[in-house]
Recover the amino acids of this structure.
């Protein structure tokens, strides 16, 4: 637990001085500790209880980690709301994950029961806000997955993946309202 707290203090620039005590209020930390309990129960083949603990932590933190997922050391979830980690996901050491990240499957049509259907994330990987990684893909060590990226294939070690960034478009001049045949069309819509 101390190692987890140290990892949070090292990687969150908001924790400094007297604010360091706030680390104990971080939902990512609570979800991680809850997962460790659920994972031990799951490995002992105790039915129902691991999933109950997982769902309780989801209710309390907004972070859903399946008890079957394997998570390495010093895992850091920043903010955390909306994070989903699937049953067969594997996460290495020193991984950083921001809110709304999904490590999920491709759906019941593709995923056979009992097969590995979630991603494997290497050591020291960063997963940006809203990143979605689906299927039994591998993310290499030290890779950086940018915000809102959709990953459906393996990513080599050290790679940087970026989703298209928003672009600025010129604003249109204010048109004088007139009754025209195109009155229902949004003139400001992106072309």
């Amino acid at each position: 637990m101390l190692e987890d707290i140290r990892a949070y203090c090292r990687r969150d620039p908001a924790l400094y001085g007297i604010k360091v005590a706030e680390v104990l209020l971080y939902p990512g930390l609570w979800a991680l500790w809850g997962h460790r309990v659920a994972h031990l129960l799951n490995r002992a083949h105790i039915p129902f209880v691991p999933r109950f603990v997982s769902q309780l932590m989801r209710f309390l933190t907004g972070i859903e980690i399946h008890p079957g997922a394997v998570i390495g050391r010093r895992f850091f979830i920043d903010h955390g709301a909306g994070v989903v980690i699937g049953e067969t996901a594997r996460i290495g050491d020193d991984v950083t994950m921001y809110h709304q990240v999904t490590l999920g499957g491709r759906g019941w049509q593709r995923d056979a029961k009992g097969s590995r259907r979630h991603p494997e994330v290497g050591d020291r990987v960063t997963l940006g806000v809203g990143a979605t990684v689906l299927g039994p893909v591998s993310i290499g060590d030290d890779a950086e997955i940018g915000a809102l990226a959709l990953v459906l294939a393996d990513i080599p070690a050290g790679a940087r993946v970026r989703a298209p960034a928003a672009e600025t478009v010129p604003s249109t001049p204010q048109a004088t309202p007139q009754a025209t045949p195109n009155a229902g069309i949004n003139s400001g819509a992106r072309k």
